[in-house]
TrEMBL record:
<keyword id="KW-0539">Nucleus</keyword>
<dbReference type="GO" id="GO:0003677">
    <property type="term" value="F:DNA binding"/>
</dbReference>
<feature type="domain" description="HTH myb-type">
    <location>
        <begin position="23"/>
        <end position="75"/>
    </location>
</feature>
<dbReference type="InterPro" id="IPR051953">
    <property type="entry name" value="Plant_SW-associated_TFs"/>
</dbReference>
<feature type="domain" description="Myb-like">
    <location>
        <begin position="23"/>
        <end position="75"/>
    </location>
</feature>
<keyword id="KW-0677">Repeat</keyword>
<dbReference type="Pfam" id="PF00249">
    <property type="entry name" value="Myb_DNA-binding"/>
</dbReference>
<feature type="compositionally biased region" description="Low complexity">
    <location>
        <begin position="134"/>
        <end position="153"/>
    </location>
</feature>
<protein>
    <submittedName>
        <fullName>Uncharacterized protein</fullName>
    </submittedName>
</protein>
<feature type="region of interest" description="Disordered">
    <location>
        <begin position="133"/>
        <end position="153"/>
    </location>
</feature>
<dbReference type="InterPro" id="IPR001005">
    <property type="entry name" value="SANT/Myb"/>
</dbReference>
<feature type="domain" description="HTH myb-type">
    <location>
        <begin position="76"/>
        <end position="130"/>
    </location>
</feature>
<feature type="domain" description="Myb-like">
    <location>
        <begin position="76"/>
        <end position="126"/>
    </location>
</feature>
<keyword id="KW-0010">Activator</keyword>
<keyword id="KW-0238">DNA-binding</keyword>
<dbReference type="InterPro" id="IPR017930">
    <property type="entry name" value="Myb_dom"/>
</dbReference>
<keyword id="KW-0805">Transcription regulation</keyword>
Length: 329
DNA sequence: AAATCTTCCAACCGCGTTAGA
DNA sequence: GTCTAACGCGGTTGGAAGATT
């Protein structure tokens, strides 16, 4: 936090006189309760307007920008204070996997939360957890253990996990967020997943209709709840909402599971691997052609930190994605 | 108890965008 | 069309508070 700036001068009207120099010295740093009160009273009385005028009219020695920030991030009556709920945390992770660092867009889906608050929360808490989770994942992967972890810190892995899937020549890395209620272990055989991002080549496509459907996927005899997500980024790191997806219905009774090539837009079923998955999503299985290759870590996805959203109109996209919720507790 | 380290988060800064003259 | 001021956003900073040594 910054200390409120002290003035070595005397206030004369709007100005400050320090020595023989007259300046309109603006305050910086922390806001005092008196300043908060002035701004709050002014805003409640007059509402939002030109911030420069607000700063002046409210009798504050602050720049308009500073007033705006203080109001938006702290004084606004509709702000929710306090810790993030698990639902909020989960939603932030989910939205970040789609939107990246577009904090204001993420914040717009969490009523009462500010972009600054979410950004801080992400940088200080979630990002750290994901990194720790990655280390755990890597080390457990190296140890080739299938045992359920008894380490309470394994909950950290609920944040995000990654699975690579092979189909023909293509390797797809799916980023999966686990569901909040899931029990995550170090074994890929019992993970509950909530969404995924997929790497593809530079193909664009429309959003598949199964986005975010919950699927119970059986891997090696163990049931796994998947929730298929949207998104993906190409080799250049440009976000690419693919028509390829991890799982997709290929006829009335079966689902294909795996990776589709960019040429599938004409007939997706051509590119389905031939796994048979029941339509009620209760007993799917993966055969040898699409396999859960490995649980890989955060770093894989985090190449996507330089991920660019390109020309995608994500706002325009959202109405077609019913599963991206707006929290309203 | 004191010193040092770490975490958290309010606030600033700089840059791109927008609106109005 | 150009300029300018204000706005809005994301990245970064820095200091208080808490944790650890």
């Amino acid at each position: 936090m910054r200390k409120p700036e002290q003035f070595a001068g005397e206030k004369v009207g709007k100005n400050f006189v320090a020595g023989n120099k007259v300046t309109t010295k603006l305050r910086k740093g922390l806001w005092s309760p008196e300043e908060d009160e002035k701004l709050m009273n002014y805003m409640l009385k007059n509402g939002q307007g030109c911030w420069t005028d607000i700063a002046t009219n409210a009798g504050l020695q602050r720049c308009g920008k500073s007033c705006r920030l203080r109001w938006i991030n702290y004084l606004r009556p509709d702000l929710k204070r306090g810790a993030f709920s698990p639902q909020e945390e989960h939603l932030i992770i989910h939205l970040h996997s789609i939107l990246g660092n577009r904090w204001s867009q993420i914040a717009s889906r969490l009523p009462g939360r500010t972009d600054n608050e979410i950004k801080n929360f992400w940088n200080s808490t979630i990002k750290k957890r994901l990194k720790v989770g990655n280390n755990i994942t890597k080390s457990s992967s190296n140890n080739s253990t299938d045992e359920t972890s008894s380490d309470p810190s394994s909950n950290i892995m609920e944040a995000a996990m990654f699975i690579s899937m092979h189909d023909h020549d293509h390797l797809t890395t799916m980023c999966m967020e686990s569901s909040m209620t899931s029990t995550i272990t170090t074994s890929p055989s019992s993970m509950h997943m909530n969404s995924m991002l997929m790497n593809d080549h530079d193909h664009l496509g429309h959003l598949p209709p199964l986005l975010q459907n919950n699927m119970n996927l059986e891997i090696n005899g163990t049931s796994n709840l998947f929730n298929v997500g949207m998104g993906g980024y190409d080799d250049c790191g440009v976000l690419d909402v693919p028509y390829m997806m991890g799982m997709m219905g290929n006829d009335d009774t079966n689902l294909g599971c795996g990776v589709m090539d960019g040429d599938v837009n004409a007939n997706p079923t051509n590119y389905m691997v031939d796994n048979k998955i029941s339509t009620n999503f209760n007993h799917q299985f993966i055969d040898g052609k699409v396999k859960v290759e490995e649980v890989v870590g955060f770093d894989n996805h985090w190449a996507g930190e330089s991920l660019k959203l390109g020309e995608w109109d994500l706002e325009g996209l959202f109405p077609s994605i019913p599963s991206i919720p707006y929290l309203d507790f």
